[in-house]
Amino acid sequence: MPSKPKPLQEIVAENVRRERTSLGISQEEFAARCGYHRTYIGAIERAERNITLSTLEALAAALKLDIKELLVRHD
Amino acid sequence: MPSKPKPLQEIVAENVRRERTSLGISQEEFAARCGYHRTYIGAIERAERNITLSTLEALAAALKLDIKELLVRHD
């Protein structure tokens, strides 16, 4: 049975958290690299923020990823 | 010489306009399909709006595209 479509916000949240932890950096360190506050990164990783294209660009740049990789579903 | 990185906002703008026109529909018709006002679609297509993930989802759904296709650079 095909899985239910997952909201993009959740896909991005999971990908940011997985990629950040695979870099071995804290939310605090990652927030500093992005130029955001730690609490904003926490909210993004809990899928609580409907982020914009420019935020998506900043996250991907800090993770050294192509932006599209943050939109790929991995489950 | 590698081309200058193009802001995501411009890439999405160009892709939305190209895909919408290839469907042969007006901004008005497309806006109705997305549930947005025509002027908002116009602003998006002129790269004047830093849209959110949920708007990206709505645009891709109305264009019957995978969201990632709206982020692909075509020039």
TrEMBL record, chains A, B:
HTH cro/C1-type domain span: 16-70
Gene3D superfamilies: lambda repressor-like DNA-binding domains (1.10.260.40)
Keywords recorded for this protein, A-Z: DNA-binding, Transcription, Transcription regulation
One Gene Ontology term, aspect cellular component: cytosol
InterPro entries xref list: Cro/C1-type_HTH (IPR001387), Lambda_DNA-bd_dom_sf (IPR010982), TransReg_Diox_bact_type (IPR050807)
GO molecular function: DNA binding; DNA-binding transcription factor activity
SUPFAM superfamilies linked: lambda repressor-like DNA-binding domains
Domain of life: Bacteria
Protein name: XRE family transcriptional regulator
Species this protein is from: Methylosinus sporium
